[in-house]
């Protein structure tokens, strides 16, 4: 029972970070109807940027982490302005291919700058411990869960109550109607990419605090993709719930099933769960159901 609770608690903590990264997918899809396949590489760049500020430049975390977010926001604005804005009006598949190309560029750039070796991430959070149901939660997992939870609540309130949040939801529902009432859709797109890059960078920092970082960190985008589809491509609450489900499922399958079959279950379990749920709910748990009339 204690082992189960340990896996459950750390799974929730890890799932909250997955949910934060998945938020970037949802934001871009809600505002542009584009799936950003470079989200994992934005996580990679964010993690290594923080590593550069902390370990290579020797900056304190109080300065290094805000600078990392600033760099991520600038990168998001730049990508939208130089790569995505010229693609407005083009077929969706063409824009998706641009995001795939962007993923390759970002990963290649990171490899050229930092190399392919593992990098130990510095300790950036104060020592913190908590015992829940008799189970001790490691400090990095606890900090990751707390920070990701606060950010998810803050972004949910932002989209529901702020002026920019209302404009982003309006642009997502109908771009032409949003333009007709004076909403600058291009600025909405730029803001969506900036926020997506910022949450990706923050997710990279939280994952780095839990483990070492390397070039394989970009694969987190593929791992988080079932979170997005499971919750619904256009649903922020769905991303939160999907992240928690996948995080817990991944931990439990790795702890209980993987020792019996020799490995690989932990990586496959999220996709099996995704397949089963989509057979019942093709639009995800909270995705908007679209009906096409012929």
Radius of gyration: 19 Å
Numbering strands along the chain, what is their spatial order in the largest sheet? 1-2
Please provide the count of β strands: 2
H/E element sequence:
HHHHEEHHHHHHH
Which overall shape is indicated by the principal axes computed on the Cα atoms? globular
Structural class: mainly alpha
Structure report:
The protein is mainly alpha-helical. The protein has a domain at 15-218. Helix content is 73%, strand content 2%. Strands 1-2 form a two-stranded antiparallel ribbon. The protein starts with a helix and ends in a 14-residue tail after the last helix. The relative contact order is 0.20. The model has no long low-confidence stretch (mean pLDDT 84).
